[in-house]
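Complex 300.
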Amino acid sequence: MANWTANDIPGQHGRVVLITGANSGIGYETTLALAKKGATVIMACRNIEKGKEAQAQILKQAPNADLTVMMLDLADLTSVDDFVQNVKKTRHHLNVLINNAGVMATPFLKTKQGFELQIGTNYFGHYALTGLLLPLLEKAPGSRIITVSSVGSKYGRINFDDIMSERKYSKWNAYSQAKLANLVFGVELARRLKAANAKTISVPVHPGGAPTNLQRSSGFLMKNIITPLMSQPAEMAALPSLRAATDPRVSNGTYWGPSGFMELKGYPEQSKIPAHAEDPITGKRLWELGEQLTHVHFQF
Ligand SMILES: NC(=O)c1ccc[n+]([C@@H]2O[C@H](COP(=O)([O-])OP(=O)(O)OC[C@H]3O[C@@H](n4cnc5c(N)ncnc54)[C@H](OP(=O)(O)O)[C@@H]3O)[C@@H](O)[C@H]2O)c1
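Predicted structure with NAP bound:
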């Protein structure tokens, strides 16, 4: 379908969506659009104040929205565990999980468990979160796991010999490694769900470019010149996630992103998965590393 927009989202009443990084940028716009269509949304935010502010903004535009803000720090596996325990206290199923939160081009920093911050937050945090929430997703037939990658994953490389960039750190290589890991994960998860005959699907997406708070560490050139030229408003950049989460024609293991110039702008369409992201050996290796480092084992 050409020019798919948020108007094409089917009614979401009765559907429970959990989204990470819901208070800002693409996550905020994704939450707003789903709330307007009647979804119940769990807004997983690392800063409760910011989450409540975002919730209040959304309620101004969608007064009947059913939104809950909950604390989640993906850079701390204990927080991921606590968060999932709290979700399980009130929810018996989830229809959609959107692994959206991320950091970009940060200085060399570490997560609570000592992982490099970008791969630790963007990838290992979401790996653990997804594994722990899978039982709730499996209770809802047709449930979906959306993982937000980046068009930059095309240029990424997973350096298994130094995945935490201990020997050499480049803030951009670490970002593209982390976003490639998100895509490899989305594809590998689709393979494993299919093999298990699961009724849950995995759909990786990328938003193109958008001028959001993600740019806070990216430097003058990227923030003030490249991004404004090569991007679209966050509202448009949220469309791949929204389509992947709601369009009945979306299937397991497909990848969605903007269809315009260099896939940085435009309406959401199916995108080609780069060959290196589809390599099953890389997928298996990254999966096993997730198990080893987070101690989370998916039960299909
Ligand atoms: N914008 C782009 O051009 C672009 C391009 C390609 C891919 N993406 C991807 O799109 C996704 C959304 O990014 P965005 O552009 O909307 O950026 P954003 O406005 O900075 O939003 C990122 C969100 O992630 C949250 N977050 C960061 N660290 C976290 C942690 N440790 N635990 C939980 N939440 C955390 C942030 O919380 P705080 O508000 O508290 O910081 C914020 O809510 C990311 O995965 C990003 O990699 C964006």
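Strands lie at 16-20, 40-45, 66-71, 96-99, 144-148, 201-205, 255-258, 268-271.
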